[in-house]
Amino acid sequence: MPKAFNGNIVVLIYCKNVIIFILMKILLATLLFSFSFLSYSQNYVAGNVYYGNDSLIEYRCGNLPIILSSPHGGYENPTILPDRNCVGCVTQRDSYTQELTRQIEAAILFKTGCYPHVIINKLHRKKLDANREIIEATDSNFITEPYWHEYMNFVDSAKKLVYKKFLKGIFFDIHGHGHTIQRLELGYLLSGTELRKNDSSLNSSPLNSNTSILNLRYSNLSSYSHSQLIRGSDSFGAMIQKRGVPAVPSDSIPFPLVGEPYFNGGYNTVRFGSKNGGTIDAIQIESHQGVRFDYNKRVVYADSLAEAILEYVEKHYFAYFSKTYCSTASLEERNDLGYISIFPNPTTGLIYLKGSSPNSKIDIFSMDGKLVKSINYTENVDLSRLKNGVYLLRVSSERKVNTLRIIKNQ
Ligand SMILES: [Zn+2]
Fold first, then answer.
1. Distance between Cα 144 and ligand 1 center (Å)
2. Which residues surround ligand 1, an ion (CB under 5 A)?
3. What domains can you pick out in the chain, each with its CATH number?
């Protein structure tokens, strides 16, 4: 009897402790969740580093139109967070991708004197996968969920700051693959099968819409087609390949062959790129082990990636990028370098353009990338038929292309 009686007390005390433990966890998760929103709403200063709870998610605020994300390179294993055990869930770290991301950041800072936005998940992937939707990312562990929100909120904040200063930009999700073919796999959300189709298929529906660089397709400075952006001589793959690192897709390797492994972009590339709208594009970079594992090789590779990223932004986004980088306060000042100005802005209808050659063409895009008006160059453009809102006005000649933001009111 006494034994059974004692056993009941032990069970009761155990149950009470379990309930207290669960209540504490709920309280902690609620607090963490609140903190994650606090971090979302604060004022960020370029060059400063911000942390989520326990410093496990890190964000260095930038002042360039470039965002670097490292979701799979973390080392931290706090015991309070349960391991992810979901069926089919990947829990392996992408080795040295956190180090690689920091080295790309350092190389860009060295070359430009300016900061890219950088978001780092310091948690090991067996705790949090910051490139999955929340259920798989946390294996439904509510105590891990706040860290997922922190990561996503930091990227959203970076995107907002890029948009505010530049109106457009690019997000790179940095990963590492273990495939035996030693080359970069660049993800634009097109599968290997889709990439094996010809250029005209890539340039027509649905493939020309199913892309993480949808906004760039409409607004790139050279009016390149989708296929040229993905695998032409000025594609990101070509820019890294000419620096000695093979990449697919590129002008040299336009698609993976049947049976060859290929990662085409994950959750972050969909969520943070322009496929579903907006003016921030995304490319997933999956680096092979040959450029990641050795420190000296990784430094050289990070430098090449930094160069390719800057070249890509200058070629396709901002024609005078290397003359200004982060030094200009606004897109209007940046465009002054292209000798084009518009007045008045905002406008109720008629705008006047100054500074372009008479042979230019004027295209006006809505902010979701749709062409809404296309005319030959004129100094008086009538926008009275457009709905109120923000538009991108692109003036292009054979020699130069300028994109300016205009606001239509009333
Ligand atoms: Zn990865």
1. 19
2. 72, 94, 175
3. 44-329 (3.40.630.40), 338-408 (2.60.40.1270)
Q: How many angstroms separate the alpha carbon of residue 53 from the centre of ligand 1? A: 23
CA 297 to ligand 1 centroid distance, Å: 20
| CB atoms near residue 229 (< 10 Å) | 22
How many angstroms separate the CA atoms of 234 and 227, rounded?
A: 11
**What is the per-residue pLDDT for 405?**
78
DSSP codes of every residue in 149-213? HHHHHHHHHHHHHHHHHHS-EEEEEEEE---SS-SEEEESS--HHHHTS-HHHHTSTTTTTSSTT
pLDDT tens for residues 287-342? 999 999 999 999 999 999 999 999 999 999 998 888 888 875 444 444 434 456 67
Length of the chain: 410
Q: What percent of the chain has pLDDT over 90?
A: 67
Round the CA-based radius of gyration of the chain to a whole number and report it: 24
Phi, psi angles (nearest 5°) of residue 310: -65, -40
Q: Taking the model in full, what pTM does it have?
A: 0.75
CA-to-CA distance for 395 and 356, rounded, in angstroms? 8
Question: What is the pLDDT at residue 408?
Answer: 87
